What we know:
α3 packs across α12 (about 280-295). About 70% of the residues lie in helices and about 5% in strands. The longest helix is centred in the C-terminal third of the chain and has 27 residues, at about 245-270. It is globular and about 55 Å long. The strands form 4 sheets. Strands 1-2 form a two-stranded antiparallel sheet. It has a two-stranded antiparallel sheet with strand order 3-8. A two-stranded antiparallel sheet has the order 4-5. The chain is mainly alpha-helical. It contains 16 helices and 8 strands.
Amino acid sequence: MSDTRSPVRPAEAAPPGAAARPRPLAARNVSVAAAGLILLALPFYLDPFWLQAGLFAIAAAIGAIGLNLLTGATGQLSMGHAFFLAVGAYGYCALAGDGGTAGGHTLVGLGLPSWLAAVLAVVLAGAAGGLFSPIAGRLRGAYLGIATLALIFIGQHVLFNATSLTGGFNGRAVEPLSLLGFTFDDTETVIAAVPFHSAEKLWYVALAALLGGALFARGVLRGRPGRAMNALRDHSTAAAVMGVAVARYRAAVFVLSSMYAGLAGVLLALVFQRTVPDHFGMVLSLEYLAMIVIGGLGTVAGAVVGAVFVSLLPQLLTRYGDALPLVSSPGSGGVSPGEASRYLYGAAVVVVVLFLPGGLTGLARIVRTRTTPSKERT
Length: 378
């Protein structure tokens, strides 16, 4: 007897919306791949101004990821992030430099291989965070923020007075990075008929550092440590009842955040090619807090988006300030690009706190949800 049952078509066998599920994932993968290719190709097309601005944004993103782990994911407010950036920057200078003199001061320099000096500078920033971690493990919220203010005051005093380490008010030069026999300095290297100088060479090092830092932080947030950190942020007493070692987790995240800041400080020193004590002050710490609030607390993407927004805004206003109303060149009596950028991202912080708790990444998720057809969201 022949089988009269009609074959079941795939569309009838699959639940509604199942065939549409892979599409958003595939589209996201294509978008990520396209963005990666664009980032890799930028040194061949952008002028040095925009490359340097992009390097500042990448360094800021690395530091913001570390602060977002501490403040956004764990709920620990830190006002001393700039201190650990200074530890990384000046640690690299002292470990990689050969000494010499600057401004009449004899400088400390161990002359280590620059790649090793960069690694040790990050470890040194983590060690500095470890020295402060007993305090970080016992304080929370605004109390920790007030305590970390001491790091800024101590750091500024040391940076301006330890002239053998910092070179004083005028700072000290930075040894270029060397890796596998390749030096990332201003010596011209022609690749595909495009001259590569320090900015073009450092671009790929910075991208690799950002990618590694972002993937590591994402793994932390998605794993068991991330769940423990979120529990600490939401209710530390309940987290302790569930078996989370509150003091140990707070201290460990503070050390990890310090190491991210140290890596950002090393990259900033390499991009600037000179470290100046005045840069690592209270304003820099406040800017990092603005980055994670504007981008979105508790997410890696939020730290990156907020860092790009806050770090590129002054560069854009400086470049195009002549064509913008109310913005004038520094010293002319009007609003300088730096002041205008602080007004703008200060206003952005207020808007985010009042209307967008998820920051710019939260806004992007809302827009994506509303524009995605209902069948694809099923």
